[in-house]
Design a protein that fits this description.
alpha+beta, seven-stranded antiparallel sheet, 255 residues, 15 strands
Amino acid sequence: MCQLLAMNCNVPTDIVFSFTGFAHRGGRTDTHHDGWGIAFFEGSGVRHFVDHQAAIASPIAELIKHYPIKSLNVIAHIRKATQGQVALENCHPFVREMWGRYWVFAHNGDLKGFEPVLDGPYRPVGNTDSERAFCFLLQQLRDRFGATPPAMPVLRAAIADLVAIIARHGTFNMMLSDGTALFAHCSTKLCYVVRKYPFTAACLADEDLSVDFSQVTTPNDRVAIIVTTPLTTNETWTEFAPGELKVFVDGLPQS
């Protein structure tokens, strides 16, 4: 299956360190070589990069490793295809507009027999179960709430209902964001770490690289990293419970 990476912060932050380790899982330290992608929210816009090449061999991935794009919310994905051919249109994350905002989605898992009726504006371009699930989510949210987004507690409850429906069809680890919050649902495997003052050094598991975050942050900074399996060897990662949906805002999971 695929692997997921996301970042949610209280100040714009780059993901170069985490993505460098993550990209190695796209063909070097793991077998996820069927494409990759990453999306950065910047104000009302989204920088969206996808490539059907393995992340370890992609020139675009090399750009991301060396170009410190700062964002409050980032979602990245490396693909091991279970449904749909290796092609650009099947690379996550996927991006759509709803309620005048971009929404970004990525999925790790395999959904069996998931063929929802999609009769609104949200239709898949590729042929993955993941993109169908994203379109279903947005269609159902639009059907429930119309043209006006609900308050966060109501939205969170609705997303929890919908991901539970989708997860009946198989494994549904997913990341979803509209740039104001990051939703992460675990079927089988997700974990997170919150980096905040006092910052320390972190050492990547997939690359001989470390960063002393105390040298590149301020005491007010806070960053949550959410990933399929831990990226570092010397930090304490918190595992999600199976079936758990967490919402991250300003670098913290919300209770």
